[in-house]
Design goal:
Blueprint lengths: L1 E3 L6 H4 L5 H8 L4 E3 L4 E4 L2 H14 L4 H8 L11 H10 L1 H10 L1 H4 L9 H17 L3 E7 L6 E7 L7
Antiparallel strand pairs: 1-3, 2-3, 4-5
């Protein structure tokens, strides 16, 4: 996502009390980098992913609607939203509970420090059950036919792959 560097069109910020000077000050921080010409973008994708998760939680989007965003209709987590899901689980207990049951591997990418013992036990049980039944899915790098370029591919997770 890219943002214009210079423009007099900050209409969508006016209702929130932010001025053009405020917006320019934020764009001059380390959060954003130039994308060439008049465009700015996030310095790192993780900033956008965290803010997307926080927005959904702060706006009190129902867990059902958040899960409609995160989970593909045919099943499983939308791969590009894995880090957003990991951030959301650290911000919302309700969504964490659903993801523990359905997508435990993605939760390992999140912040487990604030979790209570019962959540950690539920995650461990879900992971062990998934290993036992070979139902855990993750998006792992797989070499292409030329051996030089890597792509992301869905595969059943096998702990032996870690050895």
């Amino acid at each position: 996502m890219a943002f214009p560097k210079k423009t007099s069109r900050f209409r969508f910020w006016r209702g929130g009390g932010a001025t053009e000077d405020h917006v320019r000050e934020v764009l001059d921080t380390g959060l954003f980098t130039s994308r060439g010409g008049e465009l700015m973008g996030w310095a790192h994708q993780s900033f956008a992913e965290f803010l997307a998760a926080r927005y959904l939680v702060e706006k009190k989007v129902s867990p059902e609607n958040v899960l409609k965003i995160l989970l593909h209709p045919s099943g499983g987590l939308v791969p590009q939203l894995g880090v957003v899901a990991a951030w959301i689980e650290s911000l919302s207990k309700q969504i964490r509970d659903v993801l523990i049951a359905s997508e435990p591997l993605v939760l390992l990418r999140g912040d487990l420090i604030g979790w209570g013992g019962s959540d950690l036990a539920a995650l461990t049980t879900s992971l062990l059950t998934g290993f036992k039944h070979q139902t855990l899915r993750d998006f792992i790098p797989v070499p292409t036919t030329d051996g030089r370029v890597w792509r992301r591919s869905s595969a059943t997770f096998d702990p032996a792959d870690l050895l």
